[in-house]
Amino acid sequence: MNSFKEIISTIKKYDKIVILRHQNPDPDALGSQVGLATALIQAYPNKKILTGGHNAEGLKWLATMDEVSDDDYNGALVICVDTANTPRVDDERFNDGDFLIKIDHHPNDEAYGGQLIVNTDASSCSEIIADLIDSTDELTLTKSVAYYLYAGIVGDTGRFMYPATTQHTMNVVGTFISLGIDFSGINQNMNEITLAQAQLQGELFNRLQVDESGAALAIIDLDLMEKLGINQEKANSVVSTPGRLHEVTSWLEAVQKDDKTYRMHLRSQGPIINELAKEHDGGGHPLASGANAKDLDEVNQMFKELIEIVKDFKSKGE
Fold it and tell me: What is the pTM of this model?
C-alpha cells in the first residue's frame, strides 16, 4: 500500500492524467472521480486532466464526462477510483497509459496498479479523496471540490444511515458544509424520483418474496420495466427499498438486462453478503455488493444461499 505523499509525487510527474471509475456509476464513483479531477485542475492548471467513462443519465445533475481519445492515454497517468477490480473499470483502455493508480474503499480483492491506496474503513472513496487533499499543501479543498465529495459520501452512506459512517466521516462533511456547499440541494437531487420510479417501488413491494428468516428477493424483469417506461439505471434506484421493511434483514434485487441475464444487487443489515457476491461473478462491501446471474435459476439459487446466510447469522445471535 502506498502513502498519500507517494500518490501526490506521482501525480506531479505527469502532464496528462485520466481519471476513471466503475461502470454504472453511483454518486460516490462520480463524486470521487470529478472531485479529484477538480482539485487537480485547480492545483495544476497546465496539466491536461480528463474524466472518462459513460455518462449516467440519472446523475447528469452531478457530473458529465469528458471525451477521452486514444492519444490522451499515450504517456498519461491513469487513476481509477472506487473500482475494486479491473473488469468493472468503465473504459477498457485503462491500462493504455504510462502508469496506473488505484484509489478505493472496497475489499482489495484485486490489487491492480503500480500504486494503490485502499482504505476499507472509509465510508466512501470520496472520503478518501478528501483525506488525500487534506494531507498535502499541493491541493486545496474548495467549495466546488466539496460539492462532488459531499454527494459521494451521502450516496455511499445512505444519507449517513449505514454503519460505515464514522465520526471522521461527519467531521469531513462538517468541513464541506463550512465551505458553503448547497447540501440541501444535493440531498434533494439525490432524493428525487420520477412517478415511474415511485410506481416501481409499489410493484416491488407487491412482488417481494420475504422468507421467514428475514431474507428477501425482488425481481425486476424487462416486461415490468417496459410497462413502466423505465430503464435498468432507473430500476436501480429502488435497491434500498426492501430495507425499510421491519421483516427484512438482507435482500437481493435482480434487475434483468437486455441479454436476459440479471444484475444482482445485494444489501444487508447485519449478515455478511459479499462472499455470496464473489461466488456469482461479483463482489463489494460486506453489507453492500453486486453480482451477476445468468438466469432465473441462478437468481433463485442465490436467494436460497442468502436464506442460509441469514439463518446462520441469527442462530449465532449476531
Answer: 0.88
Given this model, what pLDDT does residue 109 score? 86
Q: Where are the domains of the chain?
A: 4-190, 198-315
pLDDT tens sequence across 267-315:
999 999 999 999 999 888 889 899 999 999 999 999 999 999 999 999 9
Topology of the domain comprising 198-315? Diaminopimelate Epimerase; Chain A, domain 1 (3.10.310)
Q: Please state which of the four CATH numbers 3.20.20.80, 1.20.120.660, 3.90.1640.10, 3.40.50.2300 is assigned to the domain occupying 4-190.
A: 3.90.1640.10
pLDDT band at 318 (very low <50, low <70, confident <90, very high): low
Contact status, residue 253 vs residue 239, Cβ threshold 8 Å:
yes
